[in-house]
Amino acid sequence: MATPGAGSIFENEGWDQDELSEMRSLLQRAEQRMRKLDPASKHTMKATTPYKSPKLNPGPIAQPYITSTAGIARADRNRLVNDKDRQIAACRVEGPVKVKTRIKNEEPTAGPGWFDMPRTNLSSEAKSDLTLLKLRNVLDPHRHYRSDNTRILAPEFSQRGQIIEGPIEYFSSRLLNKDRKRTFVEEVLTNEKLSGRFKKKYNEIQASKTSGKKAYYKKLKERKSRGIRKS
């Protein structure tokens, strides 16, 4: 009962027998009064119900990513990254400069600000003409042009046209039909056949390069022998 349990506690504290008997009687009276006030009450001095923690539902427990088979630890790569992150990682990210360049390359014209000028489409003949224009300083020694140090052969957007002479230039600066050629290269080759300037210039360069060599002295000796024979 409650009284012996309480008495054993008090005995441990060093109380004498008279005090213990008086304390037991007080506890019994208190217990009787409590039962009279609430007969259905289950609270007694000896009744002690242990506290039970509520059950928790953790839900589905995730399986480990690493499994051990035959003493070897292996990770499941399919579970390390979900499908959404895998798709994002597989996407190829382009830099802003590349994106801007790609968008420009996809545009067929320069826009309304440039009267919808089309993109440059260079053929083999157009490339030859543009290369010849860059080397126009060599064509005529009496004309001087501003040096062109650009590496780009042609602009990104451009158009080609034909100059039509005015009526007042019919006799002054008009090319004859026989002198008209289809490209600049054909015109330069035709003028070279008439003037022979490029061939003459080439021979001068070769003569300066071979000066002092065996071939130079051989030709010089032949010239001298020819001059002696003529005399």
Element-level helix/strand string: HHEEHHHHHHH
The biggest sheet amounts to: 2 strands, antiparallel
Spatial gap, N to C terminus: 163 Å
What are the segments in which pLDDT stays under 50 over at least 5 consecutive residues?
none
Strand content: under 5%
- Number of E-state strands: 2
Written overview of the protein:
With 231 residues, this protein is mainly alpha-helical. It contains 9 helices and 2 strands, in the order H-H-E-E-H-H-H-H-H-H-H. The chain has helices at 2-13, 17-37, 77-80, 83-90, 96-106, 124-134, 184-195, 197-209, 214-230; strands at 66-69, 72-75. The protein has a two-stranded antiparallel ribbon. Helix 1 (2-13) packs antiparallel against helix 2 (17-37). The radius of gyration is 56 Å and the shape is elongated. The termini are far apart. The mean pLDDT is 77.
Task: Label this structure with key terms.
3% strand, elongated, 231 residues, mainly alpha, 47% helix
